[in-house]
């Protein structure tokens, strides 16, 4: 599905910045009202959720860490990218939405990726 870490990063960064909303139960732009993030909920996706093909997604994935989702649900095409997926998931789940762009820039620097596409 992805040919490189850069391609995956570009896909997720653009999707998250466009979505501009956390994918979580109780989703609002106010992080204090959220209970926990989800891979997919209604029309929203988290960082990892944007990388799971529609035909591979199962609601049973919710609540499992990224590594377990890859192993349990046989999402082998994400295995080479598990470290950056975990880092992207932290941005989505933990960082304030208005700080996603600078956080993604820092992440790009950390993984020696280009941030120009975003």
What would your notes on this structure say?
The protein has 118 residues and is mainly alpha-helical. The chain has one domain. The chain has four helices and two strands, in the order αββααα. The chain has helices spanning 5-19, 66-72, 82-94, 100-110, and strands at residues 40-41, 44-45. Strands 1-2 form a two-stranded antiparallel ribbon. β1 and β2 form a beta hairpin. α1 runs antiparallel to α4 and α3 packs antiparallel against α4.
In brief:
By secondary structure, the protein is mainly alpha-helical. It has one domain.
Secondary-structure map:
Layout: H1 5-19, E1 40-41, E2 44-45, H2 66-72, H3 82-94, H4 100-110
Antiparallel strand pairs: 1-2
Helix pairs in contact: 1-4, 3-4
Give the tally of structural domains. Answer: 1
Which runs of at least 5 residues are low in confidence (pLDDT < 50)?
Answer: none
The number of strands is 2
Note the gap between the termini.
20 Å
Please list the strands of the largest sheet in the order they lie side by side. 1-2
- Sum up the overall morphology in one term: globular
